[in-house]
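Input sequence (304 aa), recorded before submission:
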Amino acid sequence: MREFAKIGPKFWVGETGKAIRRRGSEAVVMAMYLMTSPHSNMLGLYSQPILYAAHETGLGPEGASLGLRHCIEVGFCAYDEESEMVWVFKMARYQIAEALLPTDKRCKGIQNDYDALPMCPFLGPFFDRYSVAYNLTKRRDQKNKCDAPSEAPYQAPSKQREGEREGEGEGKSEGASAPPAPPPPPKPKTKKTKPPEVTLAEWLDAEKAAERKAVPADDPIFAYADQIGLPREFLHLAWAEFKVRYTAEPVKGERPKTYNDWRAVFRKAVREGWLKLWFLDGQQYALTTAGQQAQRVQQNGGAA
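Predicted structure, C-alpha cell format:
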C-alpha cells in the first residue's frame, strides 16, 4: 500500500474536475477514491474490485457503480469488468512526473511495475501513452501474454524409445527391427511480404475502400500529443497540411513520395516537426507564421 498520494489543487478548477462535479457527489467521491485508493499504484493502472470501492467509500455497490460510470463518461478513467482493472489516465503524470530523463532510476522501477501488472486491455494503451515520457522499452498487451520459447520444451520419451531401452543387453530378436521412419521435411519458411510503396493519394483511396480511418482514434500519435501537451487542434491541422503537401503535384523532374505505411510517416513528421507549424512558447504551444497561415486556409474551407 502506498503511504501517500498527490492530488493537485487544479483538479477542482480543471475541465475534467468540473465535469465530474457536475455529475454529482458519487462521481466526486469515486474520483477522489480512485486517486487515493489503498489498492492503487503510481501508474494509475491497478486492480480495483467494485465491491472494495463500495465498502471503502461508503457509497454501496449502486453508488460506487454510478460514480465510476460518471468518471468513465467524462474521460477521467476506464474500467474493465472482466479483469477488474481500472486506469486513471493522467494519474501517472501527477504521481510521478510529466517526464523523466533516461538516466532517472525511476524509469526502471516504472518498467518493473508495468511488467508485473496482470493482463488487461489497458497494457498496450498505457505503454503508448507513457513510453516516451518514462523511457519504457517493453510493450505488453493481451495478444502476447508471454514470449514463446525459442526451442521446443523437453518431452517425455516415447513408448518406442522406452521399449528400446528395456531391450538393451537382452540379445537381438530373430528379425531385425524396422528402421525408424525419417523425420518429415521441414516446412518451407514463408517470407512476409511488405505492402507495396504507394503515394499518399493511393493509400488514402485504399483506406477509404477498406472503410478504415486514415488516423484512427487509437493511433499512438494522440497519446504522444497528450504526453507533450500538444493541442489536438494543432494535430488535426498538421494532418490537413500533411495531406496537402504529399498529395500535391510534384515539382517537374521529381517523383512523388511513396511509402508503405503513411501513418508511421505522419507520426514521424509530427515528432520531428517537419511541417514547422508550431513552437513551444514557455509551457504552451503556439502556431508559427506557417501554422497561422495553414489555420486560416482550413478555416476558409481547405486548400484551393
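Checked by second reader. Residues 232-247 form the longest helix (16 residues).
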